From TrEMBL:
<dbReference type="InterPro" id="IPR052342">
    <property type="entry name" value="MCH/BMMD"/>
</dbReference>
<dbReference type="Pfam" id="PF19315">
    <property type="entry name" value="MC_hydratase"/>
</dbReference>
<protein>
    <submittedName>
        <fullName>MaoC family dehydratase</fullName>
    </submittedName>
</protein>
<dbReference type="InterPro" id="IPR048274">
    <property type="entry name" value="MC_hydratase"/>
</dbReference>
<dbReference type="InterPro" id="IPR029069">
    <property type="entry name" value="HotDog_dom_sf"/>
</dbReference>
Amino acid sequence: MTIKPGWQGRFFEDFEIDDVYQHPLGRTITETDNTWFTLLTMNTAETHFNAETGRSSEFGRSLVVSTLTLAITVGQSVIDTTFNAFANLGFDNVVLSRPVFAGDTLWSESMVVAVRESASRPQAGIVTIKTRALNQHGDEVLSFLRTFYVYKRGAEGARRSFPTATTPFTATAEERP
């Protein structure tokens, strides 16, 4: 049996200015997502959870909480950008360019805009990316800059700690076609 490592993420050395990562997973936002996030974050703006308030607004329906849109977009980018990061240093220039509604599907992509060595942490570097979210029509709904510390390849903190199984991983004859 050969163990094949899964995706290990990008390390500091992998980031080059102007590289663009189109993140692989789209996410459709539901009414439930919006309601739960509104409750979890104690957002009391009724435009997010009161259908009557939403209907009487200029949009004619309830809006998705903007910080949910931000959270999903950041989450979508992790697989390609911060899988090996250990700290976000800042979110800047957050722009909400279009409203998002329940039923919209978000996709996101990130561009590397700055890369530099860390002066205080030789095992890491600092990367800045510009990320944007697109809805199902291809309209940009959100953009922001995010700066983070990311480990260099081989750094002590970047090592994964997959547990050693107490029993061998096998397949029985019945499981094999």
